[in-house]
Write a structure and sequence with these properties.
single chain; mainly beta; about 45% strand; two-stranded antiparallel sheet; 13-stranded antiparallel beta sheet
């Protein structure tokens, strides 16, 4: 994982300017130059070297605080843990970075397959790039680009490899202190993928997320929300919840083992509509994150289903 480049986010700069300019969130009217300056500093400025420029945000000041201030990376939490992202866990906090992941699910769909006389299992392969694009201290975009999704399907039961469903998430900081960050997010899923891969679904997903560090390297994070699709191509309304806990064992400057954290993330999904069985799915994901040096990080996790029917094994 590395801090993303200008070239990868130049297109989002124009979109971010339009969204920010069209959102009347302050009593004072900022000039166009002030808006452009705030966005430019958030996206391209030095946001990591001086955490003292960060200021706390209150829920009561949601419409007045932070909208005209460039985003800077907050200081470590009260216990000393950094605000960082983990796989399979809710973010809670803002970042400015790019994450690229590869995923494999064994026995996807839990059905034995017969192809060309051989008995095998379904395997699902995914590739995803995520961009986190802060525009000011209160607002950022997360862009999910699923550049590959592949699994067996169709009449021939061969591997079908396609682009996945593109997602864009406007994110808002509700409040932020040194110890706790709270955010509201609204993910919009666009049906750019293929139904054979479990994609081609249109949905919106509002959710609340938090991040907390009060004691030493212990971090708690999680959230809850809903996935609300248009109920085509298999999309179903669902309640979603996440809770993760991890501990940071090393300081940042111990690269290639800096900021080493081990964690477990639990994700719960409950189907809530009447279009089929009200299935509950619970997974546990033990994982790690490690600072390698030169703004590069290594992340990994293993997702273990704990309920039946299992979406994979």
């Amino acid at each position: 994982m590395s801090h993303w480049s200008r070239r990868a986010t130049a297109l989002m700069l124009a979109l971010g300017g339009l969204v920010l300019a069209s959102t009347a969130v302050r009593a004072e009217v900022s000039t166009a130059e002030e808006v452009r300056g705030t966005i430019s500093q958030s996206l391209f400025g030095d946001v990591y070297s001086d955490p003292s420029r960060w200021r706390p945000l209150t829920l009561g000041g949601f419409f007045s605080e932070g909208w005209d201030s460039p985003w800077v990376s907050p200081p470590n939490g009260g216990g000393g843990a950094p605000r960082q992202g983990w796989l399979s866990a809710d973010d809670g906090v803002f970042y400015r970075l790019q994450v690229t992941t590869f995923g494999y699910a064994h026995n996807f769909g839990k059905e034995p397959q017969v192809s060309s006389g051989d008995i095998g299992t379904r395997g699902s392969y995914t590739g995803l790039t995520q961009l986190y694009l802060p525009l000011n201290q209160r607002f950022e975009f997360r862009v999910d680009i699923p550049f590959v999704t592949s699994n067996r399907g169709g009449a021939s039961n061969d591997y079908q490899t396609n682009f996945g469903d593109f997602q864009i998430t406007p994110r808002f900081i509700l409040s932020e202190t040194r110890d706790v960050t709270q955010s509201f997010n609204l993910t919009v899923r666009v049906p750019t993928g293929d139904q054979v891969n479990g994609n081609s679904i249109t949905s919106v997903s509002p959710d609340y997320e938090f991040w907390a560090n009060w004691w030493r390297g212990l971090v708690l994070r999680g959230g809850a929300g809903m996935a609300i699709p248009n109920h085509t191509h298999g999309g179903r309304t669902s309640f979603l919840a996440n809770l993760a806990s991890g501990y940071y064992f090393t300081p940042h400057d111990m690269a290639p083992f800096g900021d080493l954290v081990g964690y477990v993330s639990a994700n719960f999904t409950q189907l809530t509509d009447g279009d089929g069985p009200s299935t509950s799915t619970l997974t546990f994901a033990p994982g790690f994150r490690d600072y390698l040096g030169w703004n590069w990080y290594l992340l990994g996790d293993v997702v273990l289903p704990a309920t039946n029917p299992q979406p994979f094994d």
